[in-house]
Each structure stands twice: as structure tokens, then as C-alpha cells.
Amino acid sequence: MTAESHGHTNYVKIWGILLFLLVVSVVGPMLEIPVLTLITAFGIAIVKALMVAAYFMHLNIEKRYVWYMLISGLVALLVLFVGLSSDIMTDTGKNWEDCIATSSCVEQRL
User: Fold this and answer.
1) 13-18: Cβ within 8 A, 24+ apart
2) 52/15 same-domain check
3) Host domain of residue 6
């Protein structure tokens, strides 16, 4: 019985693809094109995460509802990030101040 008869893929081939994507994601920023770097970095990260989830975590042979649970969790994370990002990504607020960003921590501690 080979690994192919049980629905498992060739792990060495998947590892080679992941290694190639790693090399591309390391060499990509050396081109010093910020937009291209961001697109390829996030694109490659998503592809690598999906490959690891599908093949090494065996989600490709699980029932479809497992993928639905995974995607719904990621959508919930995205909604949470979008909802909170306007508050988190500012250095001042109505009831707080990010003293590290504004260098006012030094005066407060002295």
C-alpha cells in the first residue's frame, strides 16, 4: 500500500513548493518595489497557509464543514480587525493617549 492509495499527497513535493515560495518571499523585497512586495508577501503567505492547512493538517480530506468553520473564523477575525483598527491605529483618543508614540511617557514617569 502506497501513500497515494490512502489519499495522501507527496509531502516532499509540497515541501518543495513551500520552499520555493519562501525563496520568492525573501528575494521579493530585494526588488525594492513596495506595492509589489506587499502584494507578493501577503499573496504568498495566504497560499502557504492554505497549503499547510490543506495538506499537512489534512483539511483536504476532511468534510467540507471544517473549511466553512475555518473560513468563518477568518471572516470574524477580519471583521474584528476592521472594527477595531480605527481605534488601535491612532496615537490619541478621547480617553487615552499612546504615550510611547507621542514621547510623553518620559515626562509622566519623572
Assistant:
1) 14/51, 14/55, 14/56, 17/51, 18/48, 18/51, 18/52
2) yes
3) 1-62
Note whether 13 and 41 are same-domain residues. yes
Helix (H) or strand (E) holding 9: none
Please tell me whether the overall predicted TM-score, pTM, comes out greater than 0.70 for this model: no
Amino acid in position 56: F
Interval 36-73: pLDDT, tens: 888 888 888 888 888 888 888 887 787 888 888 888 98
Q: Which three cell numbers stand for residue 67?
A: 473549511
C-alpha cell at 23: 525563496
Question: What sign results for the dihedral spanned by CA atoms 49, 50, 55, 61?
Answer: positive
Q: How many domains is the chain partitioned into structurally? A: 2
CB-CB neighbours of 94 under 10 Å: 5
